[in-house]
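[Discussion] Sanity-checking designs against the backbone

I'm trying to build intuition for which residues belong where. Below is a structure token string of 401 positions. I'd appreciate it if someone posts a full sequence so I can compare it with mine line by line.
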């Protein structure tokens, strides 16, 4: 026969233990919210920007808290759950203490192998087939190439004089009027494509002062106009300006920043800013076939050193999702760049609607690139007009009395 006093004492101890756990959890949550409030109240330049802290916040989720509670009360661990993966606290602690991610060997190798930083970055949203072995790669051209001392002869130029109209749309039902709301520019304006450079096979030499990524802007401008959206394509020769000043290739973003700021000051209607680049990866990683036609894949690059990069990433993620729905496989995903010694801002702190896009790789053709520009204009216009409708509905005064 059970002793009532013993049973009562046991229940009292168990109840006290549960209350302690609950109180500790509440204090923990209050502490987290207090620290978060303090950090977000600081000015951007004073905020903590540690990648490790960001990763820790990503891993500290409901599943991990549930496990922690289960260590004190094993009844929590007996409840059936449908989690696909269980977060490992040991991995998280090891990562925080060493800054090495056991699931990403780059976090160790990147410190030991010269040039490995080129592959640095975090995949925020992965496109089909995108992983840490085939991320976009940026390589600087040799000095003599930058200065046009060894510029290649051109070839395969037939049909490049006018934008493609194979995906042209009927007259738009709505337009921005005379307003230009999209600004397209090219920080690495001489990035080119091997099919048009006679005798050139080295990806590091795929640069040209005439046939280069700026031609993508022509197609994008036409395609956006077909959908009623006014744009300005700025073809400032950033490389020529670097040569005049004796600046290095990595200072391209400093030079293009001045160009963008001047445009913003001269036109308050500009609201979206797209910096177009070309990847150094080869054709098998930068090309996709959609409905029997070949497209140059695109990738969205976001600068992680920008304190407000989440806003830029939100736009990039939305455009990626829309491309995935209508042009499956075209987007390689959204990549966060935050490598030590790299720019990793890309002028995106000038606007929350600023993104950098990689169009294709060194082996792609302008037929493929034009189709990708049309696809981007297609999903962007859907996004733009939907956002405009929301803004108009918000601004309209209520008719209710």
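Best answer:
Here's mine. Compare freely.
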């Amino acid at each position: 026969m059970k002793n009532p006093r013993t049973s009562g004492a046991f229940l009292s101890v168990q109840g006290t233990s549960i209350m302690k756990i609950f109180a500790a959890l509440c204090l923990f949550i209050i502490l987290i919210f207090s620290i978060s409030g303090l950090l977000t109240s600081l000015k951007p330049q004073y905020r903590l920007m540690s990648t490790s802290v960001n990763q820790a916040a990503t891993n500290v989720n409901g599943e991990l808290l549930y496990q922690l509670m289960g260590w004190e009360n094993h009844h929590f661990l007996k409840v059936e759950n449908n989690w696909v993966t269980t977060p490992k606290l040991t991995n998280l602690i090891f990562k925080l203490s060493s800054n090495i991610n056991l699931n990403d060997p780059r976090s160790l190798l990147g410190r030991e192998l010269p040039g490995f930083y080129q592959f640095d970055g975090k995949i925020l949203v992965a496109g089909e087939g995108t992983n840490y072995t085939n991320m976009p790669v940026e390589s600087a051209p040799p000095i003599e190439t930058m200065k046009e001392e060894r510029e290649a002869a051109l070839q395969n130029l037939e049909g490049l004089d006018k934008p493609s109209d194979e995906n042209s749309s009927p007259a738009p039902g709505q337009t921005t009027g005379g307003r230009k709301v999209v600004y397209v520019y090219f920080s690495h304006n001489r990035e080119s494509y091997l099919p048009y450079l006679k005798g050139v096979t080295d990806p590091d030499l795929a640069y040209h002062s005439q046939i280069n990524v700026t031609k993508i802007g022509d197609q994008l401008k036409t395609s956006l106009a077909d959908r009623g959206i006014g744009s300005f394509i700025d073809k400032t020769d950033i490389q020529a300006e670097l040569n005049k000043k004796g600046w290095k290739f990595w200072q391209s973003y400093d030079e293009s920043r001045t160009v963008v700021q001047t445009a913003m000051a001269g036109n308050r209607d500009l609201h979206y800013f797209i910096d177009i680049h070309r990847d150094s990866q080869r054709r098998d990683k930068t090309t996709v076939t959609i409905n029997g036609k070949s497209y140059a894949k695109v990738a969205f690059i976001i600068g992680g050193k920008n304190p407000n990069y989440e806003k830029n990433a939100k736009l990039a993620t939305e455009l990626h999702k829309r491309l995935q729905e209508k042009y499956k496989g075209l987007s390689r995903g959204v990549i966060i760049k935050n490598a030590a010694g790299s720019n990793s801002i890309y002028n995106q702190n000038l606007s929350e609607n600023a993104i950098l896009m990689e169009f294709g790789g060194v082996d792609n053709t302008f037929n493929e690139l034009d189709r990708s520009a049309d696809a981007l204009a297609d999903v962007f216009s859907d996004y733009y007009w939907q956002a405009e409708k929301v803004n108009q509905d918000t601004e309209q005064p209520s008719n209710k009395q």
